[in-house]
Amino acid sequence: MRYALRRLGFFVLTLWVALTLNFLLPRLMPGNPALAMMSKFHGELSPKALNALEILFGVNSHESLLAQYFGYLHQILTGNFGISLSEYPASVTSVIGSAIWWTLGLVGIATTLAFILGTGLGIVSAWRRGGKLDSVVPPVFVIISAIPYFWVAMVLVLIFGITLHWFPSEGGYYVTTDTPGFNLTFFQDVVNHAFLPAMALLITTIGTWILTMRNTMITTLAEDYVRMARAKGLPGWRIMLDYAARNAILPNLTGFAMSLGFVVSGAILIEYVFNYPGVGYMLLQAVSGEDYPLMQALFLLITVAVLVAILVADILTALLDPRTRTAR
Amino acid sequence: MAMPVSGVPTQAPAAQVPAGHALARVGRAFRSSRKATAGTILLAIFILVAIFPGVIAHDSPTADAYPPHLGVSAAHLLGTNAYGQDLFAQVVWGTRNVLIIAFVVGLAATGIAVLIGIAAAYLGGGWDGTLGVLTDVLLVIPLFPLLIIIAAYAHGGTTVVLIAAITLTSWSYTARQLRSQALTLRNRDFLEAARVRGERRLYIIVVEVIPTMTSLIVASFLTNALYAVLLASSLQFIGLGDPNTVSWGTTLYWAQNNAALQTGEPLWAIAPGACIALLGTAFALLNYAFDEIGNPALRPVRRSKRVRNA
Description:
The complex is a heterodimer. Chain A contains 16 helices and no strands. Chain A is an all-alpha fold. Chain A is globular, with a radius of gyration of 24 Å. Chain A starts with a helix and ends with a helix. Mean pLDDT of chain B is 81; it is low at 1-17 and 300-310. Chain B is an all-alpha fold. The chains are: A mainly alpha, B mainly alpha. At the A-B interface, helix 1, helix 6, helix 7, helix 8 and helix 13 of A face helix 5, helix 6, helix 11, helix 13 and helix 14 of B.
Protein backbone atom coordinates (compact mmCIF):
# COMPACT_ATOMS: atom_id res chain seq x y z
CA MET A 1 0.00 0.00 0.00
CA ARG A 2 2.80 2.36 0.88
CA TYR A 3 4.41 1.37 -2.38
CA ALA A 4 1.31 2.27 -4.36
CA LEU A 5 1.01 5.61 -2.57
CA ARG A 6 4.64 6.43 -3.32
CA ARG A 7 4.18 5.64 -6.98
CA LEU A 8 1.03 7.76 -7.03
CA GLY A 9 2.95 10.62 -5.44
CA PHE A 10 5.61 10.32 -8.11
CA PHE A 11 2.90 10.34 -10.78
CA VAL A 12 1.41 13.58 -9.45
CA LEU A 13 4.84 15.18 -9.12
CA THR A 14 5.84 14.34 -12.67
CA LEU A 15 2.52 15.52 -14.02
CA TRP A 16 3.05 18.81 -12.21
CA VAL A 17 6.55 19.15 -13.70
CA ALA A 18 5.19 18.52 -17.19
CA LEU A 19 2.42 21.09 -16.70
CA THR A 20 4.91 23.62 -15.39
CA LEU A 21 7.32 23.00 -18.27
CA ASN A 22 4.44 23.58 -20.64
CA PHE A 23 3.73 26.85 -18.85
CA LEU A 24 7.31 28.07 -18.60
CA LEU A 25 8.77 27.10 -21.98
CA PRO A 26 6.97 29.66 -24.16
CA ARG A 27 7.56 32.35 -21.51
CA LEU A 28 11.26 31.63 -21.15
CA MET A 29 12.08 31.66 -24.85
CA PRO A 30 13.60 34.86 -26.18
CA GLY A 31 11.05 37.07 -27.93
CA ASN A 32 7.96 35.32 -26.57
CA PRO A 33 6.99 33.10 -29.52
CA ALA A 34 3.36 33.13 -28.44
CA LEU A 35 3.26 36.89 -28.94
CA ALA A 36 4.21 36.51 -32.58
CA MET A 37 1.57 33.85 -32.99
CA MET A 38 -1.10 36.03 -31.41
CA SER A 39 -0.41 39.03 -33.57
CA LYS A 40 -0.48 36.79 -36.62
CA PHE A 41 -3.98 35.58 -35.82
CA HIS A 42 -5.27 38.76 -34.24
CA GLY A 43 -8.11 39.92 -36.46
CA GLU A 44 -9.39 36.39 -37.05
CA LEU A 45 -10.24 35.26 -33.56
CA SER A 46 -13.30 35.87 -31.46
CA PRO A 47 -12.66 37.82 -28.25
CA LYS A 48 -13.48 34.76 -26.18
CA ALA A 49 -10.94 32.56 -28.00
CA LEU A 50 -8.39 35.32 -27.74
CA ASN A 51 -8.92 35.57 -24.00
CA ALA A 52 -8.41 31.83 -23.54
CA LEU A 53 -5.16 32.02 -25.47
CA GLU A 54 -4.01 34.99 -23.45
CA ILE A 55 -4.37 32.97 -20.28
CA LEU A 56 -2.61 29.93 -21.75
CA PHE A 57 0.37 31.86 -23.03
CA GLY A 58 0.43 34.90 -20.78
CA VAL A 59 0.19 37.45 -23.53
CA ASN A 60 -1.08 41.01 -22.96
CA SER A 61 -1.44 40.12 -19.36
CA HIS A 62 -0.54 42.52 -16.61
CA GLU A 63 -0.84 39.87 -13.97
CA SER A 64 2.13 38.60 -12.06
CA LEU A 65 3.74 35.37 -13.26
CA LEU A 66 2.29 33.56 -10.26
CA ALA A 67 -1.25 34.70 -11.00
CA GLN A 68 -0.76 33.72 -14.63
CA TYR A 69 0.40 30.32 -13.47
CA PHE A 70 -2.71 29.66 -11.39
CA GLY A 71 -4.93 30.89 -14.21
CA TYR A 72 -3.16 28.49 -16.53
CA LEU A 73 -3.43 25.53 -14.14
CA HIS A 74 -7.10 26.22 -13.60
CA GLN A 75 -7.78 26.28 -17.30
CA ILE A 76 -5.86 23.07 -18.02
CA LEU A 77 -7.34 21.17 -15.09
CA THR A 78 -10.85 22.08 -16.22
CA GLY A 79 -10.01 20.63 -19.60
CA ASN A 80 -9.95 23.88 -21.54
CA PHE A 81 -7.03 23.70 -23.94
CA GLY A 82 -8.19 26.59 -26.08
CA ILE A 83 -8.93 26.88 -29.75
CA SER A 84 -6.87 25.30 -32.50
CA LEU A 85 -5.45 28.02 -34.71
CA SER A 86 -4.87 25.88 -37.75
CA GLU A 87 -8.37 24.38 -37.59
CA TYR A 88 -10.10 27.53 -36.33
CA PRO A 89 -12.72 27.64 -34.83
CA ALA A 90 -12.58 24.00 -33.73
CA SER A 91 -11.47 23.41 -30.17
CA VAL A 92 -8.16 21.69 -29.55
CA THR A 93 -9.93 18.82 -27.82
CA SER A 94 -12.11 18.03 -30.82
CA VAL A 95 -9.19 18.27 -33.25
CA ILE A 96 -7.19 15.79 -31.20
CA GLY A 97 -10.24 13.54 -30.87
CA SER A 98 -10.36 13.10 -34.63
CA ALA A 99 -6.73 12.02 -34.87
CA ILE A 100 -6.24 9.88 -31.80
CA TRP A 101 -8.11 6.82 -33.10
CA TRP A 102 -5.76 6.50 -36.04
CA THR A 103 -2.76 6.44 -33.75
CA LEU A 104 -4.32 4.13 -31.19
CA GLY A 105 -5.35 1.69 -33.90
CA LEU A 106 -2.10 1.65 -35.81
CA VAL A 107 0.41 1.79 -32.99
CA GLY A 108 -1.70 -0.19 -30.54
CA ILE A 109 -1.99 -3.15 -32.87
CA ALA A 110 1.64 -2.94 -34.00
CA THR A 111 2.89 -2.79 -30.40
CA THR A 112 0.73 -5.72 -29.34
CA LEU A 113 1.93 -7.79 -32.30
CA ALA A 114 5.56 -6.90 -31.61
CA PHE A 115 5.10 -7.88 -27.95
CA ILE A 116 3.53 -11.26 -28.73
CA LEU A 117 5.95 -12.17 -31.53
CA GLY A 118 9.00 -10.83 -29.71
CA THR A 119 8.21 -12.60 -26.46
CA GLY A 120 7.63 -15.86 -28.33
CA LEU A 121 10.89 -15.57 -30.22
CA GLY A 122 12.69 -14.66 -27.01
CA ILE A 123 11.37 -17.80 -25.28
CA VAL A 124 12.45 -20.06 -28.12
CA SER A 125 15.77 -18.27 -28.45
CA ALA A 126 16.63 -18.81 -24.78
CA TRP A 127 15.34 -22.39 -24.79
CA ARG A 128 17.53 -23.34 -27.75
CA ARG A 129 20.45 -21.35 -26.49
CA GLY A 130 23.30 -21.18 -28.97
CA GLY A 131 20.96 -22.30 -31.77
CA LYS A 132 20.41 -20.56 -35.06
CA LEU A 133 17.84 -18.05 -33.82
CA ASP A 134 19.86 -17.27 -30.72
CA SER A 135 23.01 -16.50 -32.68
CA VAL A 136 21.25 -14.26 -35.20
CA VAL A 137 19.04 -12.16 -32.92
CA PRO A 138 21.49 -10.26 -30.66
CA PRO A 139 23.81 -8.89 -33.38
CA VAL A 140 20.85 -7.95 -35.58
CA PHE A 141 19.35 -6.12 -32.63
CA VAL A 142 22.58 -4.17 -32.08
CA ILE A 143 22.31 -2.81 -35.59
CA ILE A 144 18.55 -2.19 -35.55
CA SER A 145 18.72 -0.29 -32.26
CA ALA A 146 21.02 2.19 -33.96
CA ILE A 147 18.91 2.77 -37.06
CA PRO A 148 16.61 5.77 -37.01
CA TYR A 149 12.93 4.68 -37.10
CA PHE A 150 12.08 7.02 -39.90
CA TRP A 151 14.76 5.57 -42.13
CA VAL A 152 13.34 2.06 -41.79
CA ALA A 153 10.00 3.56 -42.76
CA MET A 154 11.52 5.25 -45.81
CA VAL A 155 13.20 2.05 -46.97
CA LEU A 156 9.87 0.22 -46.67
CA VAL A 157 8.14 2.96 -48.67
CA LEU A 158 10.81 2.69 -51.34
CA ILE A 159 10.67 -1.09 -51.65
CA PHE A 160 7.03 -2.02 -51.08
CA GLY A 161 5.29 1.23 -51.89
CA ILE A 162 7.13 2.72 -54.83
CA THR A 163 9.09 -0.09 -56.46
CA LEU A 164 6.74 -3.05 -55.98
CA HIS A 165 3.44 -1.13 -55.60
CA TRP A 166 2.20 -3.68 -53.09
CA PHE A 167 0.93 -1.21 -50.54
CA PRO A 168 -0.04 2.47 -50.53
CA SER A 169 2.74 4.54 -49.02
CA GLU A 170 0.91 7.48 -47.54
CA GLY A 171 -2.24 8.52 -45.72
CA GLY A 172 -4.75 6.54 -43.69
CA TYR A 173 -7.11 5.74 -46.58
CA TYR A 174 -7.76 6.87 -50.16
CA VAL A 175 -9.18 10.29 -49.43
CA THR A 176 -10.39 10.86 -53.00
CA THR A 177 -12.15 7.56 -53.71
CA ASP A 178 -13.17 6.27 -50.31
CA THR A 179 -15.50 7.67 -47.68
CA PRO A 180 -15.08 6.67 -44.06
CA GLY A 181 -17.79 4.39 -42.76
CA PHE A 182 -18.46 0.98 -41.33
CA ASN A 183 -18.16 -1.10 -44.45
CA LEU A 184 -15.80 -3.73 -45.78
CA THR A 185 -14.22 -1.63 -48.53
CA PHE A 186 -13.24 1.11 -46.15
CA PHE A 187 -11.94 -1.41 -43.64
CA GLN A 188 -9.76 -3.08 -46.25
CA ASP A 189 -8.53 0.28 -47.39
CA VAL A 190 -7.52 1.24 -43.85
CA VAL A 191 -5.74 -2.07 -43.26
CA ASN A 192 -3.89 -1.68 -46.56
CA HIS A 193 -2.71 1.77 -45.63
CA ALA A 194 -1.74 0.74 -42.13
CA PHE A 195 0.36 -2.21 -43.25
CA LEU A 196 3.66 -0.48 -44.05
CA PRO A 197 3.70 1.87 -41.04
CA ALA A 198 2.83 -1.08 -38.80
CA MET A 199 5.69 -3.10 -40.32
CA ALA A 200 8.10 -0.23 -39.71
CA LEU A 201 7.03 -0.10 -36.06
CA LEU A 202 7.23 -3.87 -35.71
CA ILE A 203 10.75 -4.06 -37.14
CA THR A 204 12.09 -1.30 -34.94
CA THR A 205 10.51 -2.44 -31.68
CA ILE A 206 10.52 -6.24 -31.76
CA GLY A 207 14.22 -6.56 -30.85
CA THR A 208 13.70 -5.19 -27.34
CA TRP A 209 11.04 -7.79 -26.59
CA ILE A 210 13.15 -10.64 -27.89
CA LEU A 211 16.25 -9.59 -26.02
CA THR A 212 14.57 -8.82 -22.68
CA MET A 213 12.66 -12.09 -22.76
CA ARG A 214 15.73 -14.06 -23.79
CA ASN A 215 17.97 -12.60 -21.09
CA THR A 216 15.46 -13.03 -18.25
CA MET A 217 14.61 -16.52 -19.44
CA ILE A 218 18.27 -17.53 -19.43
CA THR A 219 18.39 -16.55 -15.77
CA THR A 220 15.27 -18.52 -14.88
CA LEU A 221 16.46 -21.56 -16.80
CA ALA A 222 19.36 -21.80 -14.38
CA GLU A 223 17.03 -21.93 -11.35
CA ASP A 224 16.73 -25.03 -9.24
CA TYR A 225 13.02 -25.48 -9.88
CA VAL A 226 13.73 -25.86 -13.60
CA ARG A 227 16.32 -28.53 -12.88
CA MET A 228 13.73 -30.14 -10.61
CA ALA A 229 11.21 -30.14 -13.45
CA ARG A 230 13.74 -31.75 -15.74
CA ALA A 231 14.52 -34.35 -13.11
CA LYS A 232 10.83 -35.15 -12.84
CA GLY A 233 10.93 -35.90 -16.54
CA LEU A 234 8.34 -33.33 -17.57
CA PRO A 235 7.96 -32.74 -21.32
CA GLY A 236 10.21 -30.00 -22.70
CA TRP A 237 7.43 -27.64 -23.76
CA ARG A 238 5.94 -27.70 -20.26
CA ILE A 239 9.26 -26.78 -18.67
CA MET A 240 9.76 -24.09 -21.28
CA LEU A 241 6.33 -22.47 -20.90
CA ASP A 242 5.06 -23.27 -17.40
CA TYR A 243 8.32 -23.24 -15.48
CA ALA A 244 10.76 -20.95 -17.22
CA ALA A 245 8.75 -18.56 -19.41
CA ARG A 246 6.02 -17.99 -16.86
CA ASN A 247 8.53 -16.76 -14.33
CA ALA A 248 10.56 -14.81 -16.85
CA ILE A 249 7.76 -12.91 -18.51
CA LEU A 250 7.35 -10.27 -15.80
CA PRO A 251 9.80 -7.68 -17.18
CA ASN A 252 8.22 -8.05 -20.59
CA LEU A 253 4.68 -7.72 -19.21
CA THR A 254 5.44 -4.53 -17.34
CA GLY A 255 7.42 -3.33 -20.35
CA PHE A 256 4.31 -3.93 -22.42
CA ALA A 257 2.15 -1.89 -20.08
CA MET A 258 4.71 0.86 -20.30
CA SER A 259 5.10 0.76 -24.06
CA LEU A 260 1.35 1.15 -24.52
CA GLY A 261 1.84 4.57 -22.99
CA PHE A 262 4.56 5.34 -25.49
CA VAL A 263 2.12 4.40 -28.26
CA VAL A 264 1.17 8.00 -28.71
CA SER A 265 4.67 9.43 -28.85
CA GLY A 266 6.44 6.46 -30.39
CA ALA A 267 5.06 6.88 -33.84
CA ILE A 268 5.68 10.57 -34.46
CA LEU A 269 8.37 10.03 -37.08
CA ILE A 270 6.71 7.04 -38.69
CA GLU A 271 3.42 8.90 -39.00
CA TYR A 272 5.38 11.78 -40.51
CA VAL A 273 7.00 9.62 -43.19
CA PHE A 274 3.66 8.06 -44.13
CA ASN A 275 1.57 11.24 -43.71
CA TYR A 276 -0.55 9.08 -41.45
CA PRO A 277 -3.43 11.09 -39.97
CA GLY A 278 -2.60 10.37 -36.31
CA VAL A 279 -1.58 12.57 -33.40
CA GLY A 280 2.17 12.34 -34.10
CA TYR A 281 1.71 13.76 -37.56
CA MET A 282 -0.69 16.29 -36.09
CA LEU A 283 1.93 17.40 -33.56
CA LEU A 284 4.38 18.17 -36.36
CA GLN A 285 1.65 19.93 -38.35
CA ALA A 286 0.88 22.03 -35.27
CA VAL A 287 4.56 22.90 -34.96
CA SER A 288 4.96 23.97 -38.56
CA GLY A 289 1.64 25.88 -38.49
CA GLU A 290 2.61 27.58 -35.21
CA ASP A 291 -0.57 26.23 -33.68
CA TYR A 292 0.81 26.44 -30.14
CA PRO A 293 -2.39 25.58 -28.24
CA LEU A 294 -2.69 22.32 -30.19
CA MET A 295 1.01 21.63 -29.71
CA GLN A 296 0.83 22.19 -25.94
CA ALA A 297 -2.22 19.99 -25.58
CA LEU A 298 -0.63 17.18 -27.61
CA PHE A 299 2.54 17.31 -25.51
CA LEU A 300 0.45 17.06 -22.35
CA LEU A 301 -1.59 14.21 -23.79
CA ILE A 302 1.55 12.29 -24.72
CA THR A 303 3.10 12.88 -21.30
CA VAL A 304 -0.03 11.86 -19.41
CA ALA A 305 -0.30 8.68 -21.50
CA VAL A 306 3.27 7.76 -20.60
CA LEU A 307 2.79 8.58 -16.92
CA VAL A 308 -0.40 6.55 -16.63
CA ALA A 309 1.30 3.62 -18.34
CA ILE A 310 4.23 3.76 -15.94
CA LEU A 311 1.87 3.86 -12.98
CA VAL A 312 0.00 0.84 -14.34
CA ALA A 313 3.26 -1.01 -14.95
CA ASP A 314 4.42 -0.32 -11.39
CA ILE A 315 1.16 -1.55 -9.92
CA LEU A 316 1.20 -4.58 -12.22
CA THR A 317 4.70 -5.46 -11.03
CA ALA A 318 3.62 -5.20 -7.40
CA LEU A 319 0.56 -7.36 -8.02
CA LEU A 320 2.37 -10.05 -9.97
CA ASP A 321 5.64 -10.21 -8.07
CA PRO A 322 5.28 -10.41 -4.29
CA ARG A 323 9.01 -9.77 -3.88
CA THR A 324 8.65 -6.12 -4.95
CA ARG A 325 5.98 -5.59 -2.32
CA THR A 326 8.09 -6.67 0.61
CA ALA A 327 11.29 -5.09 -0.63
CA ARG A 328 12.25 -1.75 0.90
CA MET B 1 23.73 -15.49 -12.65
CA ALA B 2 23.00 -12.50 -14.80
CA MET B 3 23.37 -9.20 -13.06
CA PRO B 4 21.61 -5.93 -13.65
CA VAL B 5 23.03 -3.72 -16.36
CA SER B 6 24.96 -1.78 -13.83
CA GLY B 7 26.53 -4.86 -12.32
CA VAL B 8 29.93 -4.34 -10.77
CA PRO B 9 32.91 -6.40 -11.79
CA THR B 10 32.95 -8.66 -8.78
CA GLN B 11 35.88 -10.85 -9.66
CA ALA B 12 38.36 -8.31 -8.32
CA PRO B 13 39.03 -8.69 -4.61
CA ALA B 14 37.40 -5.73 -2.96
CA ALA B 15 40.33 -4.53 -0.93
CA GLN B 16 42.71 -4.02 -3.82
CA VAL B 17 41.22 -2.13 -6.73
CA PRO B 18 43.74 0.61 -7.32
CA ALA B 19 42.83 2.98 -10.12
CA GLY B 20 45.61 2.06 -12.54
CA HIS B 21 44.77 -1.59 -12.21
CA ALA B 22 41.14 -1.05 -13.14
CA LEU B 23 42.06 0.99 -16.21
CA ALA B 24 44.50 -1.63 -17.43
CA ARG B 25 41.87 -4.33 -17.04
CA VAL B 26 39.36 -2.34 -19.07
CA GLY B 27 42.00 -1.77 -21.75
CA ARG B 28 42.88 -5.45 -22.00
CA ALA B 29 39.27 -6.55 -22.20
CA PHE B 30 38.62 -3.88 -24.81
CA ARG B 31 41.38 -5.06 -27.13
CA SER B 32 40.20 -8.64 -27.04
CA SER B 33 36.60 -7.81 -27.96
CA ARG B 34 35.58 -8.20 -31.57
CA LYS B 35 32.61 -5.85 -31.19
CA ALA B 36 34.94 -3.19 -29.86
CA THR B 37 37.30 -3.57 -32.82
CA ALA B 38 34.52 -3.28 -35.39
CA GLY B 39 33.05 -0.28 -33.61
CA THR B 40 36.40 1.46 -33.32
CA ILE B 41 37.23 1.04 -37.00
CA LEU B 42 33.81 2.35 -38.09
CA LEU B 43 34.01 5.33 -35.76
CA ALA B 44 37.59 6.10 -36.81
CA ILE B 45 36.54 6.23 -40.46
CA PHE B 46 33.75 8.68 -39.66
CA ILE B 47 36.08 10.85 -37.57
CA LEU B 48 38.62 11.00 -40.40
CA VAL B 49 35.90 11.94 -42.87
CA ALA B 50 34.65 14.63 -40.50
CA ILE B 51 38.11 16.14 -40.10
CA PHE B 52 39.15 16.01 -43.77
CA PRO B 53 35.94 16.15 -45.83
CA GLY B 54 37.61 18.19 -48.57
CA VAL B 55 40.10 15.41 -49.30
CA ILE B 56 37.35 12.92 -50.03
CA ALA B 57 34.71 15.06 -51.71
CA HIS B 58 35.93 17.75 -54.06
CA ASP B 59 32.57 19.39 -54.64
CA SER B 60 30.93 21.96 -52.45
CA PRO B 61 27.98 20.49 -50.54
CA THR B 62 25.88 23.62 -50.91
CA ALA B 63 26.61 24.98 -54.40
CA ASP B 64 23.87 24.33 -56.97
CA ALA B 65 26.67 23.69 -59.45
CA TYR B 66 25.35 20.85 -61.59
CA PRO B 67 22.26 19.92 -63.56
CA PRO B 68 19.61 18.47 -61.24
CA HIS B 69 18.68 14.78 -61.08
CA LEU B 70 21.99 13.43 -62.39
CA GLY B 71 22.35 9.70 -61.94
CA VAL B 72 25.19 7.84 -60.28
CA SER B 73 28.50 8.29 -62.12
CA ALA B 74 32.23 8.47 -61.47
CA ALA B 75 32.00 12.27 -61.19
CA HIS B 76 28.98 12.12 -58.89
CA LEU B 77 29.19 8.98 -56.81
CA LEU B 78 25.66 9.43 -55.50
CA GLY B 79 24.30 11.64 -58.28
CA THR B 80 22.88 15.12 -57.77
CA ASN B 81 19.64 16.19 -56.13
CA ALA B 82 16.78 18.32 -57.41
CA TYR B 83 18.81 21.47 -56.68
CA GLY B 84 21.84 20.26 -58.62
CA GLN B 85 23.92 19.71 -55.49
CA ASP B 86 26.39 16.85 -55.39
CA LEU B 87 24.96 14.29 -52.95
CA PHE B 88 28.25 12.58 -52.19
CA ALA B 89 29.70 15.93 -51.12
CA GLN B 90 26.64 16.55 -48.93
CA VAL B 91 26.96 13.21 -47.19
CA VAL B 92 30.74 13.62 -46.68
CA TRP B 93 30.57 17.21 -45.42
CA GLY B 94 27.49 16.41 -43.33
CA THR B 95 29.54 14.02 -41.19
CA ARG B 96 31.15 16.88 -39.31
CA ASN B 97 27.94 18.38 -37.92
CA VAL B 98 26.66 15.01 -36.69
CA LEU B 99 29.95 14.08 -35.05
CA ILE B 100 30.25 17.44 -33.32
CA ILE B 101 26.76 17.00 -31.89
CA ALA B 102 27.51 13.40 -30.88
CA PHE B 103 30.74 14.22 -29.07
CA VAL B 104 29.69 17.46 -27.41
CA VAL B 105 26.37 16.05 -26.19
CA GLY B 106 28.04 12.77 -25.26
CA LEU B 107 30.66 14.51 -23.12
CA ALA B 108 28.38 17.13 -21.60
CA ALA B 109 25.49 14.78 -20.80
CA THR B 110 27.88 12.21 -19.34
CA GLY B 111 29.49 14.95 -17.26
CA ILE B 112 26.11 15.88 -15.79
CA ALA B 113 25.24 12.22 -15.31
CA VAL B 114 28.50 11.48 -13.47
CA LEU B 115 28.11 14.54 -11.30
CA ILE B 116 24.50 13.89 -10.35
CA GLY B 117 24.61 10.09 -10.31
CA ILE B 118 27.69 9.82 -8.13
CA ALA B 119 26.80 12.76 -5.91
CA ALA B 120 23.39 11.21 -5.24
CA ALA B 121 24.84 7.82 -4.40
CA TYR B 122 27.78 9.09 -2.39
CA LEU B 123 26.15 11.88 -0.41
CA GLY B 124 23.06 9.78 0.29
CA GLY B 125 20.16 10.90 2.48
CA GLY B 126 18.26 13.99 1.39
CA TRP B 127 20.64 14.63 -1.49
CA ASP B 128 20.02 11.19 -2.89
CA GLY B 129 16.27 11.63 -2.54
CA THR B 130 16.19 15.01 -4.29
CA LEU B 131 18.59 14.15 -7.08
CA GLY B 132 16.93 10.76 -7.54
CA VAL B 133 13.49 12.30 -7.98
CA LEU B 134 14.91 14.89 -10.40
CA THR B 135 16.50 12.13 -12.45
CA ASP B 136 13.37 9.98 -12.43
CA VAL B 137 11.07 12.83 -13.41
CA LEU B 138 13.24 13.72 -16.38
CA LEU B 139 13.52 10.06 -17.27
CA VAL B 140 9.79 9.55 -17.73
CA ILE B 141 8.87 12.77 -19.52
CA PRO B 142 8.81 11.75 -23.19
CA LEU B 143 12.04 13.10 -24.58
CA PHE B 144 11.37 13.48 -28.28
CA PRO B 145 8.06 15.37 -27.96
CA LEU B 146 9.71 17.62 -25.36
CA LEU B 147 12.56 18.37 -27.76
CA ILE B 148 10.04 19.05 -30.51
CA ILE B 149 8.25 21.73 -28.52
CA ILE B 150 11.51 23.27 -27.32
CA ALA B 151 12.77 23.49 -30.91
CA ALA B 152 9.40 24.84 -32.02
CA TYR B 153 9.45 27.67 -29.50
CA ALA B 154 13.06 28.39 -30.39
CA HIS B 155 11.95 28.67 -34.03
CA GLY B 156 14.15 25.91 -35.30
CA GLY B 157 17.31 24.71 -33.71
CA THR B 158 20.72 25.83 -34.80
CA THR B 159 23.39 23.30 -33.91
CA VAL B 160 24.01 25.11 -30.62
CA VAL B 161 20.33 25.00 -29.67
CA LEU B 162 20.11 21.32 -30.56
CA ILE B 163 23.19 20.50 -28.50
CA ALA B 164 21.95 22.46 -25.48
CA ALA B 165 18.43 21.04 -25.63
CA ILE B 166 19.51 17.43 -26.08
CA THR B 167 22.18 17.67 -23.38
CA LEU B 168 19.84 19.16 -20.80
CA THR B 169 17.11 16.61 -21.37
CA SER B 170 18.92 13.34 -22.05
CA TRP B 171 21.39 12.77 -19.21
CA SER B 172 18.93 11.13 -16.82
CA TYR B 173 19.09 7.56 -18.14
CA THR B 174 22.83 7.27 -17.70
CA ALA B 175 22.76 9.17 -14.40
CA ARG B 176 20.49 6.50 -13.02
CA GLN B 177 22.79 3.70 -14.14
CA LEU B 178 25.82 5.45 -12.69
CA ARG B 179 24.00 6.06 -9.43
CA SER B 180 23.10 2.43 -8.95
CA GLN B 181 26.65 1.33 -9.63
CA ALA B 182 28.06 3.96 -7.30
CA LEU B 183 25.60 2.77 -4.62
CA THR B 184 27.03 -0.73 -4.73
CA LEU B 185 30.51 0.72 -4.33
CA ARG B 186 29.62 2.85 -1.34
CA ASN B 187 30.33 0.36 1.38
CA ARG B 188 33.26 -1.40 -0.26
CA ASP B 189 36.39 -1.79 1.81
CA PHE B 190 38.74 0.31 -0.29
CA LEU B 191 36.47 3.32 0.11
CA GLU B 192 36.18 2.65 3.82
CA ALA B 193 39.98 2.54 3.93
CA ALA B 194 40.18 5.93 2.23
CA ARG B 195 37.68 7.36 4.69
CA VAL B 196 39.64 6.00 7.63
CA ARG B 197 42.81 7.52 6.16
CA GLY B 198 40.95 10.80 6.47
CA GLU B 199 40.74 11.66 2.78
CA ARG B 200 38.36 14.40 1.72
CA ARG B 201 35.08 13.46 0.02
CA LEU B 202 36.05 15.09 -3.25
CA TYR B 203 39.35 13.19 -3.28
CA ILE B 204 37.56 9.91 -2.67
CA ILE B 205 35.05 10.55 -5.45
CA VAL B 206 37.60 11.69 -8.03
CA VAL B 207 40.49 9.36 -7.25
CA GLU B 208 38.80 6.26 -5.87
CA VAL B 209 35.21 6.07 -7.12
CA ILE B 210 35.35 7.43 -10.66
CA PRO B 211 38.28 5.30 -11.91
CA THR B 212 36.55 2.17 -10.63
CA MET B 213 33.55 3.07 -12.74
CA THR B 214 35.50 3.77 -15.94
CA SER B 215 33.81 1.19 -18.11
CA LEU B 216 30.31 2.32 -17.15
CA ILE B 217 31.24 5.97 -17.66
CA VAL B 218 32.56 5.21 -21.13
CA ALA B 219 29.41 3.21 -21.84
CA SER B 220 27.37 6.24 -20.69
CA PHE B 221 29.25 8.46 -23.09
CA LEU B 222 28.53 6.05 -25.94
CA THR B 223 24.84 5.80 -25.03
CA ASN B 224 24.50 9.57 -24.87
CA ALA B 225 26.38 10.02 -28.14
CA LEU B 226 24.16 7.46 -29.86
CA TYR B 227 21.01 9.15 -28.60
CA ALA B 228 22.37 12.54 -29.63
CA VAL B 229 22.93 11.29 -33.19
CA LEU B 230 19.45 9.82 -33.44
CA LEU B 231 17.62 12.71 -31.76
CA ALA B 232 19.45 15.50 -33.58
CA SER B 233 19.06 13.79 -36.96
CA SER B 234 15.38 13.20 -36.28
CA LEU B 235 14.82 16.83 -35.34
CA GLN B 236 16.67 18.02 -38.42
CA PHE B 237 14.72 15.52 -40.52
CA ILE B 238 11.34 16.94 -39.47
CA GLY B 239 12.57 20.45 -40.20
CA LEU B 240 13.28 21.58 -36.66
CA GLY B 241 16.97 22.04 -37.26
CA ASP B 242 18.54 24.88 -39.17
CA PRO B 243 17.71 24.07 -42.83
CA ASN B 244 20.99 25.64 -43.98
CA THR B 245 23.24 23.39 -41.91
CA VAL B 246 25.14 20.78 -43.89
CA SER B 247 24.18 17.65 -42.03
CA TRP B 248 22.69 14.22 -42.70
CA GLY B 249 19.42 15.11 -41.00
CA THR B 250 19.09 18.29 -43.04
CA THR B 251 19.81 16.44 -46.27
CA LEU B 252 17.03 14.02 -45.31
CA TYR B 253 14.72 16.96 -44.62
CA TRP B 254 15.21 18.39 -48.09
CA ALA B 255 14.85 14.92 -49.60
CA GLN B 256 11.51 14.43 -47.82
CA ASN B 257 10.40 17.95 -48.77
CA ASN B 258 11.08 17.23 -52.42
CA ALA B 259 9.47 13.77 -52.26
CA ALA B 260 12.80 12.24 -53.28
CA LEU B 261 11.54 8.68 -52.94
CA GLN B 262 8.51 9.33 -55.13
CA THR B 263 10.40 11.24 -57.80
CA GLY B 264 13.01 8.62 -58.55
CA GLU B 265 15.82 9.99 -56.37
CA PRO B 266 15.96 7.38 -53.63
CA LEU B 267 19.69 7.90 -52.93
CA TRP B 268 18.97 11.43 -51.71
CA ALA B 269 17.13 9.95 -48.72
CA ILE B 270 18.70 6.52 -48.44
CA ALA B 271 22.39 7.56 -48.37
CA PRO B 272 22.33 10.01 -45.41
CA GLY B 273 20.00 7.66 -43.53
CA ALA B 274 22.42 4.80 -44.06
CA CYS B 275 25.23 6.97 -42.70
CA ILE B 276 23.22 7.71 -39.54
CA ALA B 277 22.56 4.01 -39.16
CA LEU B 278 26.26 3.17 -39.60
CA LEU B 279 27.46 5.80 -37.15
CA GLY B 280 24.80 4.67 -34.71
CA THR B 281 25.95 1.09 -35.17
CA ALA B 282 29.53 2.12 -34.38
CA PHE B 283 28.42 3.68 -31.09
CA ALA B 284 26.13 0.75 -30.30
CA LEU B 285 28.87 -1.84 -30.95
CA LEU B 286 31.31 -0.01 -28.71
CA ASN B 287 28.59 0.34 -26.11
CA TYR B 288 27.85 -3.38 -26.06
CA ALA B 289 31.56 -4.12 -25.83
CA PHE B 290 31.87 -1.91 -22.77
CA ASP B 291 28.74 -3.40 -21.29
CA GLU B 292 30.38 -6.81 -21.49
CA ILE B 293 33.54 -5.47 -19.92
CA GLY B 294 31.65 -3.87 -17.05
CA ASN B 295 29.36 -6.87 -16.62
CA PRO B 296 31.34 -10.09 -17.01
CA ALA B 297 28.18 -12.15 -16.60
CA LEU B 298 27.24 -11.22 -20.15
CA ARG B 299 30.53 -12.36 -21.63
CA PRO B 300 30.76 -16.15 -21.51
CA VAL B 301 27.34 -16.42 -23.16
CA ARG B 302 28.45 -14.54 -26.23
CA ARG B 303 31.84 -16.23 -26.34
CA SER B 304 30.35 -19.70 -26.50
CA LYS B 305 27.97 -18.53 -29.19
CA ARG B 306 30.77 -17.11 -31.25
CA VAL B 307 32.62 -20.40 -31.15
CA ARG B 308 29.58 -22.10 -32.55
CA ASN B 309 29.30 -19.44 -35.19
CA ALA B 310 32.82 -19.86 -36.45
